[in-house]
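Retry 2 of 3 after timeout on previous attempt. Resubmitting structure tokens to design endpoint.
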């Protein structure tokens, strides 16, 4: 399965910013969509933002106007710029990719291991 490597998490004060990155390993020909999910303790995993190869973007209502998702189709990397962070943004963030075509064939979906984002008051 395709490996997704996440980076950019950490601890930040409320009102601060972080940028998450997720890179797909190996030789990748195309990915239909990539996105970010998050899961806080006691909560279900929820979609934060997603972007398709055609540029269609979806955001959770709670992050609209604060977060921006983008992708680099050469590096096969997706980014999540998070501004005006709030304590309720604290969660483990997971990178997701679907419809992956590469040198090893086709993979329906793949998940990163998750990275911690903590926002203090």
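Retry 2 succeeded. Sequence:
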């Amino acid at each position: 399965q395709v490996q997704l490597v996440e980076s950019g998490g950490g601890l930040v004060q409320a009102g601060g910013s972080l940028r998450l990155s997720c890179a797909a390993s190996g030789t990748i020909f195309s990915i239909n969509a990539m996105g970010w999910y998050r899961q806080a303790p006691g909560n279900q995993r929820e979609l934060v933002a997603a972007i398709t190869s055609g540029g269609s973007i979806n955001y959770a209502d709670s992050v609209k106007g604060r977060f921006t998702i983008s992708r680099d189709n050469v590096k096969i990397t997706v980014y999540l710029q998070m501004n005006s962070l709030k304590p309720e943004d604290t969660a483990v963030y997971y990178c997701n990719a679907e419809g992956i075509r590469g040198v090893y064939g086709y993979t329906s979906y793949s998940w990163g291991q998750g990275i911690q984002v903590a926002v203090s008051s």
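Attempt log closed. Residues 38 and 44 are 8 Å apart (CA to CA).
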